[in-house]
Amino acid sequence: MRPHTPRTITTMPAITTITIITMTTVITMITRIIMAIITMTITITMMSTAITSITTATAMRMTTNSVAPHKPPAMSEGEAAALYRLMTWLSPSFPVGAFSYSSGIEWAVEAGDITDAGSLGDWLAAMLTDGAGFCDAVFLAQTHRAASAHDDTALRDVAELAAALVPSRERQLETSTQGRAFIDTSRAAWSCEGLDEIIAACGERIVYPVAVGLVSAAHGILLEPALHAFLHAVVSNWISAGSRLIPLGQTDSQRVLARLEPDVAATASRALAASLDDLGSATFRADLASLRHETQYTRLFRS
Question: Is residue 9 part of a domain?
Answer without folding.
Answer: no
